[in-house]
Fold:
Amino acid sequence: MYKVRVLFVFLFFRSFIFFGQAESIVQNNIDVQKYAFHIAVNDTTNLIRVRAEITVLFNEPVHSFSFDLVSKGAEGKGMQVDEVLENEVRKDFVQKDEKLIVNTEIKTSFLQKTYTVKYHGIPKDGLIISKNKFGDRTFFGDNWPNRAHHWLVCQDHPLDKALVEFYVTAPAYYQVIASGKLKETTNLNDKQTLSVWKTDVPMPTKVMVMGVAHFAVEQVGETHGIPISSWVYPQNKKEGFYDYAQALKIVDFFTAEVGPFPFSKLANVQSKTRFGGMENAGNIFYFEKSVTGQRKHKSLLVHEIAHQWFGDSATETDWKHLWLSEGFATYFTNLYYEDKYGEEIFKKRLSDQRDKVIRFSKNHNTPVIDTLTTNLLNLLNANSYEKGSWVLHMLRRKVGDQNFWQAIRTYYKRYAYKNASTKDLKKVFEEVSGEKLDAFFEQWLKKPGHPVLKTSFVQNGKIIMMHIEQIQSNFPLFSFPLELQLIYRDGTSETTKVYVSEKNEVFTIKVSSDIKEILIDPEVNLLYEKG
Structure:
């Protein structure tokens, strides 16, 4: 996901949202296998009617269980449940706040049943019903982080993945894009059309969506058997088709470097998402001003497409591991730029991202793996994005390129369509590299901050005494390799490395002639701040 700030049309990884979402908790006594959402939208009101068919596997006997669904509030927005059926038998239920509690008697574990929930209402959030920049009415799902249950009855947590089908009845002049493959389009009458989309792999609720709007659609082509298409507003189709056609080469890169594209298609969609980009599985929603006709937002496309592998397919087990999604997408955007545009562009991106981490740390003494924050939108910060990216970069330098890429491919293959934690990633890297990485993961992910370094040197003949001090006051001490580039007065240079682990250290380094200056971290491989 890419956040937008509309200031000088720059894109930053920041929240554009004016309210928060409380952390959701996964319900372990059920495991949703499949959703089938029959949704009717109209142009007369913002009211939607839904019949959801949900296949549930019970992990243990229960007297009742619950789905997530926002109830109708005093302001008139929210969902009102009309009926709940268990295999066609009516069940008692209670709607309370954001829960639909179903009373039932399940006496054995691993029993599977199908529930039909009929409800209606005006979504308070999650399904954004509004007008686009050309004044046309649009409907766009916008579920991250746990906003799906504002309009979809579900288990709204990334740990519970499921297949999903969308049966969307809409006015006939609209087109519908949704998760999965298009299975059916039927003209029900002169005024309504039914569109059916179905997935063949499971996904979390945060990335299962539909969009209903006036679209111009271009089939960009196929790569590795995956169709790539662009869905843009008709009024700017020339510009949109040009901008979004970049996706084909981006998918090629990640397919070659990571593994097969995980979903049945990739549709890049101009939309009303409140984010800069939202990585919905197989159909990415971009903010509507991403279409410029000048390809200004290529990094946005790269970031969201990287998410298809990391976040959508291999998904974090819980919100505190968000860096496995956002940090990965940020670093893999850097890797794409390194491959296509060279080392200097790569290092410039890393340097800029390091600056963002430093600025964020001035007011936030929190680690990347944040176990205390419950407002999920507050996790959309430089720790999850830029620092997560930097952790991957330092890990790459620690284990070497060959081990890094082998570990990445192993990790993805092992956790594709599943969930992973930071511990799972560490285990894979240890298996591949043969190194113990507990200390590395502990200091960079579980502890806040970064080294703040004050350095100086004194030369005495062919010896220099290099003084390095960690002066960070609110953060712990760090242990790390530090590259030094020795610049001689005759214009030559050489690079050496020291290992820093104490608050104050003096390193003795042999040199060949007079030193003009010493550059700290010349290759941009350490997350640190100059003191």
Summary: DSSP finds nine helices and 29 strands in the chain. The domain at 315-446 is CATH 1.10.390.10 (Neutral Protease; domain 2).
